[in-house]
Design brief:
The protein has 15 helices and four strands. It is mostly helical and about 325 residues long. β1 (about 75-80) and β2 (about 85-90) form a beta hairpin. The chain starts with a helix and ends in a 15-residue tail after the last helix.
Length: about 325
């Protein structure tokens, strides 16, 4: 067991991490917790389909983090005749792409499960989200050849109609103004789901960047991060010339960039863990039983990303 001085020293060392070796230590904290959580949630009863879906997201986060860990160890290559060996490198565009996927998952989880003010609002957003995904899958119907897959597509079309009916009979939808109902119908047609409600009226959000800010992230911290990671994910010219700079033999920068990117991953995962505790209060007990250093690291990144009102517990007080 650490004394206060040791705790403070380790806490400071990890938060000031500039090396990949320290980043791996922090990854260990998150992957162990996420693994425990998704196994814990699997043992509990699902009240609704929406809750069953929510329980899958910690497992998705866990697998994304494991993939990131592997990428951060770097890749190498040897020619068939073994005349050339590629030194271990990290592709920053791959790190950026995986980080963007985590960014989107955290945003959607908060939008669907944390931000709604009541069950009618939550149901509306959940069904819009489901319809969006199923409608995108319907676009592939013309290219399907398997009868089994075609039958699945037909069943999903029936499900889409059922979910639309659930929305149109939702008390919140029925109480909306005509303009509000038109917005919802437009969202259904265009496969959109990013809304928040104010005085019972739907107001659209402009993509994942808006969604993460609605989730309480400080604009100063996460204001343009989605664009930053998207530049890596897309074959933009910026991605190309940055890639070239990363592998400049005279001063390769992929280690430093990876450490920076992973700190953003920790911000996102910490906020997700805090939100998870709001939806599934039983996970807070698991969190409270973590080693105190693990609690402090997770909660620090969560508060840094948002503010003190989102604090998971009082673990940081033990730093003195």
């Amino acid at each position: 067991m650490m004394d206060q001085l040791q705790l403070r020293s380790e806490y400071t060392r990890l938060l000031q991490a500039t090396e990949l070796t320290e980043t791996f230590e922090i990854i260990e904290i998150y992957k162990n917790y996420l693994f425990d959580i998704f196994r814990q949630l699997k043992r509990t009863k699902d009240d609704t389909i929406a809750i069953a879906d929510a329980k899958m997201i910690p497992q998705m986060m866990f697998t994304k983090l494991l993939h990131l860990e592997q990428v951060c160890h770097g890749i190498t290559y040897q020619t068939r005749d073994r005349s050339v060996n590629l030194n271990p490198i990290i592709d920053p565009t791959v790190v950026g792409t995986l980080t963007r996927a985590i960014f989107e998952s955290v945003s959607v989880f908060n939008l669907i499960y944390i931000s709604p003010k009541g069950s009618d609002e939550q149901s509306m957003l959940y069904y819009l989200w489901v319809i969006s995904g199923l409608k995108y899958r319907q676009r592939f119907v013309d290219y399907l050849t398997s009868e089994e897959v075609k039958e699945k597509s037909r069943k999903e079309k029936i499900e889409i109609d059922r979910f639309i009916n659930m929305i149109e009979t939702n008390p919140l939808y029925l109480s909306c103004s005509e303009k509000g109902r038109q917005q919802i119908q437009y969202a259904i047609r265009k496969k959109k789901f990013a809304f928040y409600f104010e005085n019972g009226e739907p107001l659209p959000l402009d993509g994942f960047q808006d969604m993460v800010l609605r989730a309480g992230f400080r604009k100063k911290i996460m204001g343009e991060m989605y664009t930053y990671f998207s530049l890596s994910a897309h074959p933009s010219n910026v991605a190309v010339f940055q890639f070239a700079q990363m592998f400049d033999k005279s001063a390769p920068e992929f280690d430093r960039t990876t450490v920076f990117d992973m700190k953003n991953v920790f911000l996102l995962l910490s906020a997700f863990i805090a939100d998870l505790g709001e939806l599934f209060p039983e996970t807070k007990n698991t969190y409270n039983n973590l080693p105190i250093l693990d609690q402090c690291i997770i909660n620090h990144f969560n508060i840094f990303a948002r503010d003190e009102t989102y604090s998971i517990n009082n673990c940081l007080h033990q730093l003195g």
